[in-house]
């Protein structure tokens, strides 16, 4: 009976794995919209964004139409009415990144101005606000950085960083505004002007800090270093994260018009973002991919993740949209890191050595182990030794 049950379990798992493979193959073939440009330089172009090369079917509407400029080597991706390069886009996260310039004001060791440059950025479209994941940063000794909002919302702020010698500066942090200072970006910012300036004529700092710098950048991507005091003069841009959404309605309204609902994948969901109007689509839990395309959300194989989602005494088996952890022979539990896997015990809390030692991990009887256990039974009275 036990062998038959184990055989049925093995057949079931084999069937599940076969179905998972077939489903993944089908989804992969439909991640890219047929006939549309897939890549521009180093950027993967993903629907609802698209170029006009394959016609209007390649992009959701005019605000998602992008241009691949082949005059650059490699080619660069841009919005239609903006000269700021797009460096990456993620339909799954509702984010894209653009390369924005650094504002700077530079001096020589005689404190003579050698160059200054203010910078500005505008997303052009109200559905692409600057993400609150970014921070405004000013770098330098005696540096003031100012950021002003471009738009109807009033937003004007800045910060000052100071230091007298490079030994004052601590790597990895802007805490205390020593060498750098930072300000959060509020919701509802669609464009800005940034300015950097120097507040000191101290000639001693110009050998290691020739410029005052100011920029907006993804907070997770920028980590301050004392080397930035000099080396940022050789850097041109930082990546800024933009949020985006589709439509001009909420999820509740979008679901009522199923023919125009942009969430096309079977295993997708609609969410209302906080930083912008409209709605956004995501793949359901256990799936990943592009929720804006039919069959665009693929099953996630959690068993390939590191570390494993299962307990060390369990085997991971991928399922469609989920996974299961099966404890190995002689163990019981959920197989995950909640209750994990523990050895099976007898009716009085005693470990059933006859079961644990009598089978190997594959369910086969080990005659040598069983023989040794029978020998132990002759010397010790087991609490449940009633012939079981």
Automatic annotation (TrEMBL):
Recorded topology in the membrane: Single-pass membrane protein
Location of the EGF-like domain: 259-298, 299-342
Keywords on record: Disulfide bond, EGF-like domain, Repeat, Signal
CDD domains named in the record: EGF_CA
Keyword Ion transport: no
Residues annotated as signal peptide: 1-27
Entry's Gene Ontology cellular component terms: membrane
Cell location: Membrane
Domain of life: Eukaryota
InterPro entries according to UniProt: EGF, EGF-like_Ca-bd_dom, EGF-type_Asp/Asn_hydroxyl_site, EGF_Ca-bd_CS, NELL2-like_EGF, WAK_GUB
Cross-referenced SUPFAM superfamilies: EGF/Laminin (SSF57196)
Record keyword Repeat present: yes
Recorded GO MF terms: calcium ion binding; polysaccharide binding
The protein's name: EGF-like domain-containing protein
